[in-house]
Amino acid sequence: MKALPPDVVAYKRTPIFTQETVPAALLKHHTTKDGSWGKIKVISGQLEYQILLDPPEEYRLTLELPGIVEPQVPHQVHPLGPVEFYVEFYRVEEQ
Fold first, then answer.
1. Model pTM above 0.85
2. Among 3.60.21.10, 2.40.260.10, 2.60.120.10, 3.40.50.970, what is the CATH number of 8-92?
3. Where are the beta strands (DSSP E) in the chain?
4. What distance in Å separates the CA atoms of residue 84 and residue 71, rounded to the nearest whole number?
5. Is the CB of residue 13 less than 8 Å from the CB of residue 27?
């Protein structure tokens, strides 16, 4: 799993999503904007995180293992049963 760069700061956070409230856009191929990193944080349950590169990468996210989203890298998530999670967004701090 990738790591956030040391020079990024959080600037936005989504509401908490469940298997029933996860937006449809997160369930299919999407990206973050240029310069925007994401951290998918699972509160309970498990979430499948797919990084849609060649070759693709797949992770099972849990409370102990968050998912890191690199800028403009295509990805998608799928709930693995009951789950609660949110996404924090990060960017390089403007000076």
1. yes
2. 2.60.120.10
3. 8-13, 17-18, 37-51, 57-61, 67-69, 75-92
4. 23
5. no
3-state secondary structure (DSSP) of residue 40: strand
Which residue do the tokens 């936005």 mark? Answer: 12
Backbone φ and ψ for 70, nearest 5 degrees, come out as -85, 150
Digitized pLDDT (tens) for each residue of the chain, 95 residues in all: 889 999 999 999 999 999 999 999 999 999 999 999 999 999 999 999 999 999 999 999 999 999 999 999 999 999 999 999 999 999 998 76
